[in-house]
Amino acid sequence: MKTYLFYDVETTGLNSAFDQILTFAYIRTDLNLEELDRKTITIRMRKDIVPSPKAFLTHGLTQNELKQGINEYDAALKIHTILNTPETVSLGYNSLGFDDEFLRFMFYRNLLDPYKHQYNSGCSRMDILPLTVIYKVFHPDSLKWPQAEGKPSLKLELISSENQFETSGKAHEAMNDVEAVIELTKRLSQNKAIWEYCLEFFNKTRDEVRVNTIKDEFCVQNKRFKVCLMVSASFGAKVNYLAPVVCLGQSIVFKNQSLWLRLDLDDILGLDTGAQFSDTFVIRKRAGDQLIILPSLDRFWRKLAKPMQESAAENLEKIKHHWERFFDFIDYHCEYKYPFIPDMDLDAALYQDGFFSAQERKQSDMFHKALSDLSQGYEKKDILNKIKIPRIKKIANRILARNFEGQDLENTEYLSHLSRLKSSKDKDQIIGYRNDLKFNRVQGLQELKEIEQKLLHPDRDQSKMIEWLKGYFK
Q: Are 107 and 398 within 8 A, CB to CB?
């Protein structure tokens, strides 16, 4: 039976590769949104995590609550099984933009298939945030829409409050947010025709067919291109969450990506400043993701503000006039490959090192089975000795150090990793896949200092949290 798995996570920070999920809450429903099951999984914070004070003051998870949790490895096994229950549609609010990437990296660093829940055994993904944007722009009577500081807001807690959704907890508690998403989904799905139409944005095949059937009506030197409307919460309320775009074609390097150029921005193609192509950008869309493409029909196009319509028209003329640069621009971005980062940390290497091979999956399965059989006399060192593939051996080594008592003290690589997190030296910084850095003790202390300066009158819970974080960082 096909089911929805509404879920939400709370984390130690915002970096999907390096930060950690602390709670995973879910409610499974049938397709009529009738509840079948619910659960919250709490996860102990790993020793190699420096938590973001901003994150902890937002979700409010305490040291005592986290101590009651299970280790990350056991949690990853449980969550992976839940998401990969056959015929499961996993979804949340901004789940494709945030939660799902956290899950992907958690599965990867625990030797589980990071992508299986997206396609295997009838499983798939959705996201309620992009659908909420569609209703906000094109069917505004569906809900009462909140404002924050005089500006429209799509924050879940504000939508929930404005529409008086019934939930059992407070905002930013994972289970409470799951309940709010289900209430929101019930409202949106009342209009069956619109709801069914919107669901197909997350069907990869249907999404590709829709985009491919949009007519190529913009002509440059006898080559034709699609001019469309892109819908995304990331564009913001100021532009009504819409942007006029032209499709540049498919990436040559990344076959699942189509490339799109916004037509409402200044200095299109870097013409005015003579910018290098490396300083320009395009939007990369995958079929069935959170970016929604609509044809440039009048009923859609008129939702754009007049200045945006005028900018799009001007930029299309610029493209025609500077067609040689336009084609060079397309070639550059279609052939673009993300640069190799030689000193990237193991935890962040999912995209650079790629999918697990068949042999790697086989050795990962052997590792999981051996760990489950520890009660029968296996030693953890014996398990590592059986793993021959370097990548799997390194990841397995970290799993043991992070999750099993006493293993961290025997693991020199892991002890070095912890030491680097305490260090203030640039050479000890831990590099991520965006050339970003893992949050360390120096950054934690600095963020905490900034919070204390702004938060002049903290309440009792905030004061306790700040004191705990100070002690933790020291």
A: no
30 conformational bin, left if phi > 0, alpha if psi -120 to 50, beta if neither: beta
For tokens 């289900």, the residue is: 182
* Residues 220/281, Cβ–Cβ less than 8 Å: no
The three-class DSSP label of residue 154 is coil
Give the relative orientation of helices 323-334 and 306-321 as an angle to the nearest 10 degrees.
100
| Structural domain boundaries in the chain | 3-192, 201-334, 346-428, 441-473
pLDDT value of position 220: 97
Nearest C-alpha neighbor of 180 from the set 194, 161, 198, 195: 161
Provide the CATH topology of domain 201-334: PX Domain (3.30.1520)
Rounded CA-CA distance 246/39 in Å is: 44
Residue 351's CB is within 10 A of a number of other CB atoms, namely 15
Distance CA 441, CA 84 (A): 36
**Residue 336 is encoded by which pair of tokens?**
């673009």
- What are 78-132's pLDDT values in tens digits? 999 999 999 999 999 999 999 999 999 999 999 999 999 999 999 999 999 999 9
Q: Does the model's pTM come out above 0.90?
A: yes
Select the more confidently predicted residue: 274 or 444.
444
- The owner of tokens 């999912």 is 350
